[in-house]
Amino acid sequence: MLALADLCQYIRSQTDVGEGISAGILDDRLQHCIGVFDNNRSPDFRIPIGGKENARYYKLSVSVLIHWGTTQREAAKKAQEVFELFYGVTNMKIKDSSVAFFAASAPQWLGFTEDKICEYVIPIEIYVNKEE
After folding, report:
1. pLDDT for 43 beyond 60
2. Does residue 132 surpass a pLDDT of 60?
3. Bridge partner list, 18
4. Which residue, among 42, 29, 38, has the nearest Cα to 8 in the 3D structure?
5. How many CA atoms lie within 13 A of 82 on its CB side?
6. Between β-strands 57-68 and 118-129, what pairing exists: parallel, antiparallel or unpaired?
7. Are 67 and 30 in contact (CB under 8 A)?
8. How high is the pLDDT of residue 101?
């Protein structure tokens, strides 16, 4: 099963994460950090014809929060960089999970925090092949 911590490690291995990256929490005192959050508000429990043993994949929905600097230009650049780690990527291995593909939406501007730090969010659906 693909965990949020595995996604954090993947992002960390591909780009600068500033002062850190975390799963399920974000230290908003930092000026440059990334958070990865579970976005499964209503899990997808579809069962294919023939029963659940015929399911070939499961779907995870996550949000990647980019909490980055005091200018929108700086934050947008980092959000686009992280988005490119997922957009159009297919057939990859993350830790012990085989990801069929990522369905990433473009970074969405959230605005400024009370401390004037810019934030973007990237919604991502991850289709993970079931282990054989």
Report:
1. no
2. no
3. none
4. 38
5. 35
6. antiparallel
7. yes
8. 94
